[in-house]
Design a protein that fits this description.
- The protein is an all-alpha fold.
- The chain has one domain.
- Helix content is 65%, strand content 0%.
Length: 51
């Protein structure tokens, strides 16, 4: 789970950028896009073999 602690003097935009970077590193957005639609187990296996 991505979490960013903000100090009193820290700018909101800067904290938001940090949060977005953490989300990319953890693969949260990628996982959400993959789970958006159902994929059959056989299709998942084919994708993993191609990788």
């Amino acid at each position: 789970m991505a979490e960013v602690r903000i100090e009193k003097k820290e700018d909101f935009e800067k904290a938001l950028r940090k949060f977005n970077i953490q989300c990319k590193r953890e693969g949260i957005l990628k996982e959400c896009r993959e789970r958006q639609y159902y994929t059959k187990p056989s299709e998942r296996k084919r994708r993993n073999v191609k990788k």
